[in-house]
Amino acid sequence: MIGRPIAPETEATIYVSKVISGDKKLQGKTIKTVFAGGLTKGKYLYSDYGIKNRQETIYYPSATFPMPQIGSQLIMGIGNYHPDSTQQEKMYKKFGLSQNNFYTINNPETTFWVKTNGKYQINNPAFNNSAAKHKFKNIYKLTDKFNQQ
Length: 149
What we know:
The chain is α+β, with helices and mostly antiparallel strands. 18% of the residues lie in helices and 28% in strands. Strand 7 (112-116) and strand 8 (119-122) form a beta hairpin. The longest helix has 12 residues, at 137-148. The model has no long low-confidence stretch (mean pLDDT 88).
């Protein structure tokens, strides 16, 4: 989604193989969502990032919500998209995303798991250390439960 200033997003298509909790109507369907990070022009980033060519297209990652690899198995909460403003609605509509086909990811920094080496783990790198496991026990209890399935 090039052209989104400061906080680029990348559109993703996700196949919902199983609904763990909630409305099962999406099970077996393909949905659209967005991940934080993506391609943007250097002119949209702050100058302290050292971007010399302001017209250059660059990849700008999210430190707290890294994009999973294509084909990854994920566990996440999703919700119906409700635009925050008419400007946001127009911007997403430009990319073919509307209330009819677009879902938002709930709390992606804390409740988004990616299967890596056969086990689910919290996607946010800040949670992958012993201090976080002690501080956020409930998230890790849930992670253990996902890995028992």
